[in-house]
Amino acid sequence: MDLIIEGVRQAVGLMVSGDAELWSVIWLSLRVSGLATLLSLCLGIPAGAALALNSFWGRRVVIGLVNTGMGLPPVVVGLFVTILLWRNGPLGLFRLLYTPTAMIIAQCVIATPVVTGLTVAAMQSLNPRLRLQLLALGATRPQLVWLLIREARLPILAGVMAGFGAVISEIGASMMVGGNILGQTRVLTTATVMETSKGNFALAIALSLVLLLLMLLVNGLLTWVQQRQRPL
Fold first, then answer.
1. Is 177:81 a contact under the CB 8 Å cutoff?
2. Mean per-residue pLDDT for 70-93?
3. Of 22, 101, 114, 124, whose CB has the highest number of CB atoms within 10 Å?
4. pTM value > 0.85
5. Looking at the domain assignment, is residue 3 inside a domain?
6. Residue 71 and residue 92: Cα distance in Å, rounded?
7. Which DSSP symbol is given to 11?
């Protein structure tokens, strides 16, 4: 209990004092996970809409693979991204390993199946008559897709929250492709693991509380947007 109290005290003290190292870690965590989530939206929402609205051979298999990818272990993602970015790997010439860019790539791979799978579910839950009604009113294909996405925006926003939560809290991939380098690739999760391994439990608790507060603020904002658009 004393460790928890000390952790809370340190968390408040670090944030109030404007600790430069802590705010650098917080900013990097937000930047990496925010960009990864944004990229996953750009990839996942169109892919989910395409899977939900088109029929083709093997569609159920693809959806099954996407749903499997929603539970993809971060360490597996970290391993394959590391192999791709290794100096002798296919993308080694870009020297991206142990950089924030590598972390964004890995986290994007983790979040994209989550966003895609939940977008597919959201689009398929719409009333089939809505699609026919929009076509009867003369909607073009792009207009149809856009209007259906807007109609399913509430569960899609839930997918955004799930994707962000999956990447801001993961540790395996970030540690493997980022290396937990101070001032360059150290984020809240990797810093927490490092401090725990050193026996600095109070500081690890402080970092964990900051991470929880960050997730609460971001998801609280997204929840406000989601519920604000909910029909009465």
1. yes
2. 93
3. 114
4. yes
5. no
6. 27
7. H
Instruction: Encode 18-71 in three state secondary structure.
Output: CCHHHHHHHHHHHHHHHHHHHHHHHHHHHHHHHHHHCCCCCHHHHHHHHHHHCC
Q: Does 54 fall in a domain? A: yes
Cα angle 137-140-145, degrees, rounded to a multiple of 5: 100
CATH number of the domain at 147, please: 1.10.3720.10
User: For residues 152 and 80, is the Cβ–Cβ distance under 8 A?
Assistant: no
Amino acid at 187: V
d(CA 16, CA 184): 23
User: What are the Cα distances from residue 28, in Å, to 36, 94, 100, 209, 213?
Assistant: 12, 21, 8, 17, 16
Domain for residue 172, yes or no? yes
C-alpha 132/C-alpha 146 separation (Å) is 14
Domain, as residue range, for 79: 31-190
> How many Cβ atoms are within 10 Å of 210's Cβ, its own excluded?
23
Alpha-carbon Rg for the chain in angstroms: 20
> Considering its fold, how many domains does the chain have in total?
1
Which candidate, 20, 2, 22, 5, places its Cα nearest to that of 210? 22
Looking at residue 232, its pLDDT comes to: 53
Cα–Cα distance for residue pair 50/167, rounded to 1 Å: 24
Task: Answer whether residue 111 is part of any domain.
Answer: yes
Encode pLDDT of 161-176 as tens digits: 999 999 999 999 999 9
Kindly state the tokens that stand for 78: 């970290």
